[in-house]
Amino acid sequence: MLSGEDAPGQPVESTPMAQGHSIEDYIETIYFLAFPVGEYRPQTKGAPTLAVRVADMLGVSRASAGEMLKRMEAEGLVERGEHKEAILTPQGRELAERVVRRHRIIERLLTDFMGYTPAESHVQADLLGDTFTDEMIERISERLGNPDRCPHGWPVDTTFEQAENRELAPLADLEAGARAEIVRLAEHDGELLHWYYDEGLVPGTAIEVREADPESGNVTVQIDGDERALEERAAAGLFVRAAA
């Protein structure tokens, strides 16, 4: 477990990303927030609006996120729900799923052929996303052997991903005594993603929850006979499948 300001439970504030995000960046972020098991985003105080959560995940101002959401609504990618929340339209969902699939295939290209570590691949895939056409992505996928998952465990097939969501839960939700297998790692927090790999908390790892605090989200797990303490930030970003 890292200590001090490097520990996942006591994170240094991430450096905000540049304000110049594309619609595809936003649509991908909204996609992650649209399903029961989505990207890591601990919520301990109320329920922030979608604009606030998108702004936090992309490192942009809330005003910038609000303006982009208005633009996306005007372009038919999102619509307002009963409680004024932004919901992906069929057109928006189709775009989001295409963007997500492309990102995951590019990550596999970077790790399988270009020597990037899994933790590095997420950032690089973000930078390269607009470089490849849909036809190029299909060719890359074929050359890769049509991989099932990205390096961090997220299915390339978004339909399968959404079905699998029902089988998974954040590690922070498990009770003491539960046994599980890590299936996916949260990606958008780059510092946390690197920490997972440094600590061997990777897809396929079997864990047992020794202690769990439902109020704080902190857990202590056993891995290969060793106990490790994970604070909420780390536990909330590990998506696991409980053992029978």
Indicate the CATH class of the largest domain. Mainly Beta
- Return the average pLDDT rounded to an integer: 86
The radius of gyration is 18 Å
Structure classification? alpha+beta
Largest sheet: 6 strands, antiparallel
> Unreliable stretches, pLDDT < 50, 5 or more residues?
1-19
Largest sheet strand order: 3-8-4-5-6-7
Name the CATH superfamily classification of the largest domain: Ferrous iron transport protein A (FeoA)
Intertermini distance: 28 Å
Number of DSSP helices? 9
Any idea what the shape is?
Answer: globular
Query: Percent of residues in helical segments?
Result: 40-55%
Number of strands: 8
CATH-level-2 architecture of the largest domain? Roll
What is CATH's topology name of the largest domain?
SH3 type barrels
Strand content: 15-25%
Give the number of domains: 3
* N-to-C SSE string, H for helix and E for strand: HHHEEHHHHEEHEEEHE
